[in-house]
Amino acid sequence: MKRNTLNFWIDFISLLVILGLIWTGLLIHYVLPLGTGGRHGGQGVTLWGLGRHDYGDIHLYMALAMIGLMVIHVWLHWSWVCTTVNKLLGMKAASSARRAMYGGAILMISAALICGSLFWTRSQVNPTSKVVEQETIEYQSSSSIHISGQTTLVQAAKICGIPVEELILQLQLPAKVDVNERLGRLKHQYSFEIEDVRKILEQNK
Fold it and tell me: Where are the alpha helices (DSSP H) in the chain?
């Protein structure tokens, strides 16, 4: 395939992905806003059989695809990028080997910054008292409480009306598990499902 043809298809697919990102973003914000429900087959509002979190997953996959397309796009135009930067900085043109080295270094630095910042933000997440109070109010006023993967272990215990130690025991989790960790992450580490927590809630109503 010719370089111009390849550039055209990369740009065309990128346009479709960008439009998809805009559409799913607006859909999640305005049509299926926060509090409208969970995933396919669960409780809540659905559109064409998919819930808010399903469209959130699609939005994420499109964003990852966009990153890959942008990397390919820059790679196809890398010689032009390096030549333009050299001219702007008044530097001599770099060899092809040096351009490849620059590109690899930029990719590694970018990946390190993204992964490092995400790892750092995990230590900065804290549940607020308002979230716990709101979920407790919903539990008292509704017979069908929504416990999702975003609910933390300590929040789930308060919703179920039991001590967090008892919930840890019933889910067969390690005694030293982080009670502020979200259920969605915990269920991937240990052998339980969100539905197990909902059953505990039903038993303690």
Answer: 3-26, 52-76, 78-89, 96-122, 129-141, 153-160, 164-170, 183-189, 194-203
Answer whether 0.85 is exceeded by the pTM.
no
Question: What's the whole-number average pLDDT of the chain?
Answer: 83
Q: Specify whether 9 is located in the same domain as 54.
A: yes
Tally the domains of the chain.
3
CA angle at residue 130 from 125 to 133, to 5 degrees?
A: 120
CA distance 161 to 135: 11
Which residue, of 60, 95, 124, is where some domain finishes?
124
For residue 140, pLDDT beyond 50 = no
Which residue, chain included where needed, has tokens 């990102």? 21
Mean pLDDT value of segment 75-102: 84
Cβ–Cβ < 8 Å for 76, 9: no
Range of the domain at 57: 1-76
pLDDT at 53 exceeding the cut of 60: yes
User: In whole angstroms, what is the distance from residue 142 CA to residue 205 CA?
Assistant: 11
Per-position DSSP letters for 180-199, written without gaps between them: TSBHHHHHHHSS--HHHHHH
Nearest one of 22, 51, 25 to 36, comparing CA atoms: 51
